[in-house]
Structures are given as structure tokens and as C-alpha cells.
Write a structure and sequence with these properties.
heterodimer; A: 221 residues; alpha/beta; Rossmann fold; six-stranded mixed sheet; four-stranded antiparallel sheet; 10 strands; 35% helix; B: 801 residues; alpha+beta; six-stranded mixed barrel; 22 strands; binds adenosine-5'-triphosphate; binds magnesium ion; membrane (chain B); transmembrane helix (chain B)
Chain lengths: 221, 801
Amino acid sequence: MLLQLRNIFKWVNSGGQRLFLLKDINLNVEEGEFISVMGPSGSGKSTLLNVIGMLDNFDEGEYEFLHESVHALKEKHRANLYKEYIGFVFQSYHLLDELTVKENLEMPLLYKKFKGTERKAMVADMLDRFNIVGKKDLFPTQLSGGQQQLVGVARALIANPKLILADEPTGNLNSAQSEEIMALFKQLNSEGVTIIQVTHSEKNAAYGSRVINLLDGRMIK
Amino acid sequence: MLRNYFKIAWRNLLKNKSSSFINIMGLTIGISTCMVILIFVRYESTFDAHHSNAEKTYRIVQRYSLPEETLYWNTTAYPLAEALRNDFPEIDVVTQISGPVSRVFQVEDNFGNVKRFEESQVLFVDAQYPKTFDVHWLAGDLNSALSGINSVVLTAELAKKFFGLEKENYNSILGRTIFLQSKDPFTVTGVVASPPGNSDHQYTMLIPYEFFKINNEYFSSNWSGNYQGTTFVVLRSAKIKEALEKKIAGWKKKYLNPEDDKRIAYALQPLKEIHNETLYGNSPGGYIMPANILNTALIVALFILLIAIINFVNLLTAQSNSRSKEVGIRKVMGGGRFNLIVQFIFENSLIIIGILALSVFIVRILLNFLNTNLSVIDLQLELGWSHVGILLFIGGLTLALAAVYPALVVSAFKPIQALRNSIRFSGTNRFNLRKSLVTFQFAVVQLFVIAAIVLAMQMNHFRETDLGFSSDAVVITETPEFEKLEVYRERLLGNSGINKVAFGSGPPMAVNGIQLGTNYRLPEQPEEEVMMAEMKIADIHYLDFYDMELVAGRNFLGNKEAFDEFIVNETLLKSYGWNAEEAIGKKIQINEGQATIVGVVKDFNNNSLQNEISPCILLNWTYYQSNAFIKISDANHLSLGVIKNIWEQTFNNSIYDYQFLEDSIEKEYAVENLVFTGFGIFSILAISIGCLGLFGLMSFMISKKAKEIGIRKVLGATLFENLSLFTKEYIGLVALAFLVAAPLVYYFMNQWLEGFTYRIELSFWMFLSGGFVTLIIAILTCSFQSIKAALANPIYALKEE
Ligand SMILES: Nc1ncnc2c1ncn2[C@@H]1O[C@H](COP(=O)(O)OP(=O)(O)OP(=O)(O)O)[C@@H](O)[C@H]1O
Ligand SMILES: [Mg+2]
């Protein structure tokens, strides 16, 4: 088991009322799964992903990640945990505009205390694997959306995470570009990486092995 | 890692070129100004501190108590030094100085040419002088150089000028002879380096005090006179100062007459305090930089630095909003808060260190500029290793406030909100902090502006006040030989450009620190009841020359070797309660003799306007008519050449010099002028920094609000409505700042004005106009940016997203 959510609630207080963003979420994710999260806009998909990614807190319930109780962990421990095991891919790529492709890929490694030679090797490896060696010295604004997302995925993968969280990774891409990214996910998954993606498209969801539907912060079957 | 930080810092700097430029400019101006002021303050507060005995050296000063006032003198009777030397073994060194004076010398240079020079910084010093003050010897023997009578020690510069030395072989001129006023021969016994600029002992030539003593037997042996002599002592240890002062108090009766013994109290003033202490003033040749002006300068420097730092911080935190996405991404990629703090501190420090380097460069230029262009005082400011401390202080303060604080703010962003770009400043503390910073900034700006206005008004007041005599177009020359006065007058008046000529000891207002003092009493009064008066020697043309009005009696009939007539001012009458008519015919006794009052002159400002009019006695003496006053009628000053020719024909033994009375009067306000110039410059700088900051803030706000403006415009908002969206807030802040600044300026300016007898009244409009000027500038700065934004086509702004 990679992670387990038990009775997770998340709410915000608004005008004296509790506004629930997540309600009683129970979810088991095994290593090697490829899960698609679906649901209408505002149903809580991003919120769920952020909770799983430990970027956001929850108010009630238990969360275990690789047998560590996330809800009981200190902030610093939690950060170490996701630093080591989780990679993120965003709808709007979120590359640093001031850094080149190569530098963007290297950036997460800097925070993970890899040596300079190791970093070089890992970056070269990624550039190779994603076929973007020729683009390594370009800045993100000089790339197409699909290329940017390719870099985004490469960046998420570079430190060999066990889990990739992707919030509408193809939301800004055309269908050809989308297919390329989905194929990539499929391949990564076959190599053993667990993937949880949020998507609005049935077609994209079909790449996964399981679909979770959310409505008003609640999982529905 | 650092390379990565460096890269991103550099690229960000380039990406926001204009705001980076504004940011760097503002802080550079602030730091440079602050440094220049601190260097100036250090310079002015370390006068004569470089002497190795500085800690143990004291000047003997005296308090002279009269029935109605106490006078503070920095000069002492000449015999004092020798008496102290003989009677007090606990005093290591006693040195007697006279001068500086101006003398003419005749020199034969290496090529046999005889040349004549006038030297204005000739100091008479005894052999103890080099043991008291550090003198850097380049040639000659320091122990014997000043022990003869007809020896002379020259500074290197003067040696070159006199003997046309090409190389620095100063030994070659030892033993050469120069002539004082072409009669007394002096042998060169030493060459020394010029004293540093921050010393009150400026000289180009040292002549043994023995020579002065022999030639001025009367002064140098007289205990009851107070001439231009200064006495310094070096104590075995600073601890015995008080005990010694007590001992001297009991000892002085051995030499002083009983009258003086009662009136005179000697005190030891530490050498290092002389330059900043107004009570005793400076010895002849030096000037005073009052401690309170230096303190004000320090506060000003700190304020300027603070507003510059505040700007920097404001702009940086404002810009950090646009860096929030980066913070979010880095945090999600595993960057901890600590990593981000380090990154941003590194980045900001890099910029600040660059700014510091740039400032050092600018400071050098500014110092050079001050040295050459500041005419009120002679500065020799230099940037040296001793200023590293100042640089570290400023750098440290700037780094702590401007590098660390923004880094803490930025690194605290929460990743999800940062990525959503939903970090908001409105309503949070940070926004209020920025508002208060801007308010503080504008309070300081207004403080400077209002102060500058008040200072300008006071300076103007000095110039416009009716002095009770006319001073325009008056040229003053010296008159070296009394016997030739009438010849000189006739030759002058033979020219159409010259209207009037008069002779006397000095102009109606005492300028250049020269004022003859005397004691006065009624002949029947006992000697202890004397009072102090200024005395002026005047000829029969003097009153008419200066348009001075007689309120009773008549003018002098003529000058005499034994004077017998006085004309007194109205202020003097008050000491006896006489009216003008009553005074005529009364006899008065002064130190120099007795005479009858023949006239009463209407009060005129015989002291510069910081001070009150004091009792003044004009006498018809032939002696001391050492100045000629010449009224010229031509505006283009052709007559100046004529005067020079006549002067040289008449007194062919000396070197010509002249001055305009108005210039000399202006010099009386040197310190006030300096303060005014300073505040003028600082208020302009403060405004510039403030505007740069406002400009930067506005451009940032507007880039944030471009969309809002676009939408409002599409919905029909007018230009004005859109403008007021931005300016309203800042107008409020400027108004608030005014409320803070006004009472402070009122307090400080009142204090400053209190020091002057003739002063302006603070009035409401000075404050309002200061506030108004600032407001206008603030509005213009805001509008410049927002008009651009408000006029832009809304489509572009809306497309941005
Ligand atoms: N900090 C917050 N305060 C208040 N409400 C919030 C907050 N964060 C999210 N929400 C609300 O929670 C709900 C779920 O948001 P979330 O972003 O998870 O939706 P989503 O399913 O990802 O929608 P979309 O498909 O449009 O991305 C929304 O109604 C949103 O307005
Ligand atoms: Mg979402």
C-alpha cells in the first residue's frame, strides 16, 4: 500500500458557517496504480490532490503514506516525505521563466542535496529520455505548450518519485499534445510509477486503471 | 546552488530593468549622501585629534567676569606661558603661540631673482610647539629649528614657492636667508609638511616666538592685556586636570593685579573639544563647527539613509508579489523556507553590495566636488581606510533592513496561494506597514522641505535687515602707513569712479573676527565697576561715509594723537540711563584714556545679526586707522584696478589686497549659510528619493491594476475617476505625514531661531507651502504613471490574463 486516506474532512469557515471542501474521503492507493480523479468544476479535485501531496492541511481524519502517519508528522518531516517520494505536474506548467530548460530540471535536485556531477548526469538523462536535448538552453517562453508540459513532467520525474500528482496536466494542450503526455504517463506507469491525475476528459481518464468521481467534496461511486 | 541563485537574481534584475534602475538609484543616492555626511561629521569632529598628545593637551582659556556679564576668551596674556612653565612641574609642556599674521617676505631664488611674497599664515611658536603638536619634519632638526631668534621653518609647499625647488631636496635650502618686510633676515632651519586640513593650526611658516617677544616687548610682558596669544599645555596625565585648575586659581594672584585676579578665572579646555565648542570660540585662524550642527547632520544622514532603505524595502516587497509564483514552485519542488530565505537574502545582498560599491565611487566624486566648491569653509575631505567603519555601519544597517526583511516576507508565502497568485496585500498587516513606511518617508521629506523654507527666510532676513549703515559698493583696503593717509585719500578722490573715502579701525559691523574691545566707566567710578564696550577709531568722514545718523551733538573735528572726543551709540547710554542730549559733554574713561562725548549716533548693528547691538565708542584717534573705506560708483568695478594702482604707488612696500564689505558681512553667516545650503541640498535629495520610491510603487501598483483599470474603462469610468483610484490614497498619506512633520519642524526651527537676536517669526504659510510643495510633487509623480495606464487601450490590459 502506498497511501491510505481515512475519513478525511476539510472545511473553511465562511460567515460563521462551515463550508466543506472535502467530506469523508476514504481512499487506498496501491503502488503502481494509475488513478484518474473526475468531477465537475468546484467539486474538490484540486483540493484532494493538494491534500495527498501534503501541500494543504486537512481538518479531520487520518492519512498514511508509506506507513507514516502524515496527520501526526511535523511540518519538516512531512516536507521531507513529499520531497523524496512525490512529484507534481501542473495545468499551467509552472516552470520558472528566468531559468532555462536545463536549469528548471536541475532546480528540484538542488533542494535534495545531490552532488554537482550527479545532477548533471540526471539532467542529461532526462533530456535524453524526453528527447529535448536540443532545447536545453532555451527559456520556457521559447517553447510550445506541449514542450513546456514535457519539461514539467520531466522535472516531476527527475528525482525518481514513487508518486506523480498531476492536476489537469493537459488542460492547456491541444489533443495531439494531450495524447503525447498521456502516452508518456502510461509508459511511466508501466515502469512502476504510481500516478494520480485530475482530468475532465473521459478519453484521458481511460489511460488510467481506476477512476474516482467527486461531487461537492464527496466521493461517489 | 549559489550559481543558480546568482543567475536568477541577475535575470530578474534585467527583466525588470526600469524598476531595478529606480531601486538601485534611490538606494545609491541615499547611501552616498549618508556617507558624505558621516565623513564630513567625522572630519569636523576629529579636529586635531591626530596629535600624539591630543588626549593630554589643553588650551588655557579665561572667563572674564564683569558686573553685568561674563566674557569667554580663548586668548591669554603672553607672559602666562612662561610663568606656568616655571611654576608647575606637573605640566609637561607649555607652548605659546601668537598669530597667525600676515607678513611680506623677500626671497632670492636659485636663479638670483629677488621676489616678494605675502604670506597670511605666519605663526609665531616657541620651541615647545613641536612637542605639543605633531609636526612632520622633512628637513632640519626639530630640537633646534625653532630655538634661535631669526630662524624660520617653512612648509614644503612654501619652500617650493619661495625657492623654485624642482625636486624634493629640502636639505638644499637649509641655511638660506629670507627677509621679513625686506629688513629682518631669517635663516631657514627646517622644512615641514603642511598641517592636515582637519587641524585648527594652519600655517605655512613658523617663526620663533622669541622674535615676536623681542619685537613686541610691551605686549609680551603685559599681564593685564588680552592680545592674540594662545597658550597650550600638555599634562603628565589627563587625570590631574581638575586639581591643576584649582591650583592655578590660587596661584594667579602672584602675577595678576588685584582687579584682574578677581575677574579672571583660568580653565583648561581639552584640545579635542575646541573645534566643536562655541562658548570660547576658536583661536585666531580657526573656525568653529558647533556640536549641535554636527548632531543635526548625523540625524539628517540617518533619516536620508532610512527613507532610501524604506524605498528599497517597499519596492522589493511590492515586486516580490510577482515573485510569488517562483516561491510557490520552489516550495513545491522541495525548497524549504530556509532555502528561500537564503536565496532572497543572497539576491538582495548582491544588489546592495553592488550599490555600496557604486556609492563609494560616487562619494569620491562628491567629496572632490565639496572640497573644491564649498567656499564657506576649507575642507580637505578624503576617502580613506579610516572610513571603512562608516561603510560597514551603513552597509550593515542596509543589509539588515533591506536584505533580510523582504526575504523573510517573501519566503513566508504559502505554496498553494503563491501558485494561485492570490497573495494579497490589501487588508493585511503588510499593506499597513507599507502605508506607514510611505507616511514616514513623506514626513521626513516635508521636514526637510519646511526646514529649508524657514532657513531660506532667515538667511534672507539677514540680508534684508536694515543694519543702520549703508554697506553697498564699499571696498576696504589696508593702510600700512598712517602718515600717508591724506595722500592716499586725495589720489583716490581724484578719480571719477570713486565717490567717498574714509579711514578707521574697521567697518561699522565687526567682520573677520576683528573687534577692538575696551573697558569704560565714568572717571569718578571705581575701577571694578567698568563695563565692556567696542571701540572704533574713525575719521571725520566716517559717519557720512556710512550714512550713520547723529541723534545728538556733532561729528569729530579731527583726529589727534591724543584723542579727546567720543561719539557713542544709543546702547551705551542705557548703561547710565542718559538720554542723548544729556550725554553730550559727559566725560568717560576707557583703558586707552579719557575724553568727552561730543555726539550720540543712532544704533547700528556693530555685531553680526546673530548677536545684539553692544555699547560702542567711536574715538578720534590717529592710531589704528588701519583700513581705508572706498565707495565706488561704477557697477563694472573698473575702479578696482585704479585703486590697486594708487595703493601700490602710495604704499610701495607692501602687497595689495582688498575686499568688499558686503562679502565680509556675508562671511559672518558662514555657518548659517552652510546649514542652509545643506538643508537645501538634502531636501532636494529627500524629495528625489521619495519620488523615486513613489514612482516605483506606482508603476508596480498599476501593473497589478491594469486589468481593473481596463474593466472600469470598458464600463465607462472617466480618466479622472481612474486617476483618483491611485492618487487618492497617496494624497491622504502625504496629508497624514504633514501632521507628523509640522510639529517636529516647528519645535526644531524654533530652537534654531532662538540662537539669533534678529530672527523671523515662524508663520503658518511656511509650513503650508512646504506641505503643499510636497503634495504637488507626490501627485505629479503618481499621475505620471497612472495617466499612462489610464489612457492605455483597455483591450491590451484585458488580454494580458
Ligand atoms: N481557501 C479556500 N477558501 C474557500 N473556499 C475554497 C478554498 N479553496 C478552495 N475553495 C473552494 O473549494 C471548492 C473546491 O475547489 P477545487 O479547486 O478543489 O475545485 P476543482 O474541483 O479543482 O475545480 P476545477 O475543476 O474548476 O479546478 C471550490 O468551490 C472552491 O471555491
Ligand atoms: Mg482544480
